[in-house]
Amino acid sequence: MSSHAIINTVNVARLMTIGKVESVSEEFFDVQPPQFNNTIRWNLGHLIAVMDSLVFKRISQSSKLPEGFVDLFKGGTKPSDWTTTPPSKDELITLLKQQSNDLNETFANRAEEKLENPFQIRDFKLETVGDVIGFAIVHEMMHTTTISDLLKVINYQNN
């Protein structure tokens, strides 16, 4: 996939994620129906943290996130374990937008670039910058779908 296609896809995915949550009242960001392991806030923070860890830290060896952010949202964490105040809805949306801008600026023409240290996640071998961004896009859309599912259950319970 070309650099243009990868960046276009990540932009579309990110706009879909932002569009999904921008109009949702923050009071619903921390509702955790019993059918779910996490909340809207956790899922948003998690997809931001994974994009940062996979793309920025692994490829450019730098994180763009505030200190302690990843600790709240890395895999295996959950809101009931938090001992610090998580980012607000507005802070998360700002991070989503800023991360999208950073992706565009940093990786716009690098999709075909070979990784110095290719790696594997489950059955997926990631050898290029485009491979990593593509995997991160799939991951993001999985969590955006979970957010959609959370909203359906929350809305059903509140009607």
UniProtKB/TrEMBL annotation:
Transmembrane segments: none
Pfam families: DinB_2
Residue ranges occupied by any DinB-like domain in the UniProt entry: 21-147
SUPFAM superfamilies: DinB/YfiT-like putative metalloenzymes
InterPro entries referenced in this protein's UniProt entry, alphabetically: DinB-like (IPR024775), DinB/YfiT-like (IPR034660)
Superkingdom field: Bacteria
UniProt protein name: DinB family protein
Source lineage: Bacteria, Bacillati, Bacillota, Bacilli, Bacillales
